[in-house]
Amino acid sequence: MTQRQEEVRKQVQIYTDGACAGNPGPGGWAALLVYVDGHQQRREKTVTGYEYRTTNNRMELSAAIRGLNSLREPCAVTLYSDSTYVVGVGTGSYRAVRNQDLVTALRAAIQRHSTVAFQHVPAHCGHAENERVDTLARTQAAHAKQACHL
Fold first, then answer.
1. What local confidence, expressed as pLDDT, does residue 96 receive?
2. Apex CA 15: angle with CA 14 and CA 17, to 5°?
């Protein structure tokens, strides 16, 4: 890849979070993708989902995977998470023993992009995007819990 091609890669920020009502229990995940286009317009996309019986770490990993896989082309990504587990697995500084299916999927999702930098964001500290995905993930976990009782 030439330097010029690297320069035109989209710079995307992804904010992720997972939540679980019980651990294990019904859980939800959310990712907010943010991109500033050539006209300096902020573009956003949210992706969310839930599972009926899962763990918090699985939801945190799912949010990162789904966020990265939602991008239609290779990008330069900064992924923000309040999960030290996700940041550690993503940077390779933490060797996960459990959730190997999702760890493998995260590594594959990372490989699709030119760069992926992981940044830890402290939870519940007023970071607007982190608070937003936290609310979305908790809402999805509540949907999963309600769907379990139907």
1. 87
2. 135
